[in-house]
Structure to design on (224 residues):
């Protein structure tokens, strides 16, 4: 059986490593933040400890054979339901939360490593997780910034302004339009018109066309 002080040490290390990753997610104000990552890592470590050492009394008999890796496999697959809860489908082709879901899944693996006594592997994995979450994102944004879009949503009164008028106003400004989406508003007389603009469009030009749209009769609101 594992000594008591070693059990406490493993649980503490798991909580600390989970907190390191959770702090980065908390900084960005994600739903799965500090406490969630701590609990996932701690729980995974506890499950691994129980899997490895919780059935020693049964193993003492020659007729019982246990495979601790089965519990670890269940944790890795079962943590998916928690990660799925952090994924948000904001609009068509726009999904947020995949990175946080992946961090929860990886933190569960860190907890399993700590529970199994693999302190070096768990610590190195935690350091790499933080580097990927905090340092790789600015590089990713710099390399792929032109593949994104700026979204302008215009709330219009159906009887006072047409979609063509709003589209003409945006095209007159020279902004590159990638996609136009029309949605029903909360009121029978209201419509939402969403324009996906190329990321190359400058912020100043977007704000300028927003000011022109707000001045149009029949435009109830503009959101960028």
């Amino acid at each position: 059986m594992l000594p008591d002080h070693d059990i406490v040490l493993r649980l503490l290390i798991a909580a600390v490593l989970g907190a390191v990753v959770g702090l980065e997610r908390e900084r960005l104000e994600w739903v799965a933040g500090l406490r969630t990552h701590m609990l996932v890592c701690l729980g995974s470590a506890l499950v691994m400890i129980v899997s490895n050492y919780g059935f020693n009394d049964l193993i003492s008999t020659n007729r019982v054979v246990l495979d601790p890796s089965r519990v670890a496999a269940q944790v890795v697959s079962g943590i998916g339901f928690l990660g799925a809860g952090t994924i948000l489908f904001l609009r068509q082709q726009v999904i947020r939360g995949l990175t946080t879901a992946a961090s929860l899944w990886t933190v569960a693996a860190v907890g399993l490593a700590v529970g199994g006594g693999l302190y070096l592997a768990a610590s190195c994995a935690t350091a790499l997780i933080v580097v990927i979450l905090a340092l790789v994102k600015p590089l990713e944004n710099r390399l792929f910034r032109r593949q994104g879009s700026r979204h302008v949503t215009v709330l219009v009164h159906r009887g006072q302004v047409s979609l063509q008028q709003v589209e003409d106003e945006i095209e007159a400004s020279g902004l590159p339009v990638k996609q136009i989406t029309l949605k029903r508003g909360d009121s029978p007389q209201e419509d939402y018109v969403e324009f996906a603009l190329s990321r190359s469009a400058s912020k100043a030009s977007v704000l300028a066309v927003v000011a022109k749209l707000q001045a149009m009769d029949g435009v109830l609101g503009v959101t960028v």
Summary: The longest strand covers residues 149-157. Residues 119-143 form the longest helix (25 residues).
